[in-house]
Amino acid sequence: MSDAPARWTEATVHPDMWADPDTDPRNNDGPAPDGELATLVDVLTNYRLTLRMKCEGLDAEQLARRSVPPSTMSLLGLVRHLAEAERDWRNWITDGEPLPKLYGRRDGDFDGAVGDPAVVEAAYTDLEREQAATDSALDGHADLGVRLGKEGIAVRELLVHRIEEYARHCGHADLLRECVDGRVGQ
């Protein structure tokens, strides 16, 4: 016998998918966005939604469950890590003093991801606030070549980096979710 959960999916059309294409909120039946900026924002939005989907339906203990020792990675840790990353990215493009870390010391985002409903609620609140603040800081910069902040980071570079970070962590979330309850990713 094994403690590993059986693999499963809610999809009925494609058994290796997270959701059926006709009910997947990331699917857009209309035309793709026009232009590079709109495309980058659309891709980022879909990865953000994917992360949330990977966490749906789990309780605080399941969200905080670590993958395999010695890793401290968990779905809740990823939510907290991405909130911290959004704040860091905003710091990259400001001319002022950087905002302090959300979770204190290095790895505080993962180490503090414990199975407490209040911690889960705070993590989602932090993520939404930090995403909105970074989005707001980038609003009005339609020229993707504009360089911002003390280091002169191009808007395009920051958007692509954000997409890369969410995409990488959505891959982690696939594996973490499958370890928690067997639900497969796509």
From TrEMBL:
InterPro entries: DinB/YfiT-like, MST-like
Pfam families attached to this UniProt entry: MST
Organism the protein comes from: Streptomyces pilosus
Official protein name in the record: DinB family protein
Location of region: Disordered: 1-35
Top-level taxon of origin: Bacteria
Alphabetical list of SUPFAM superfamilies matching this protein: DinB/YfiT-like putative metalloenzymes
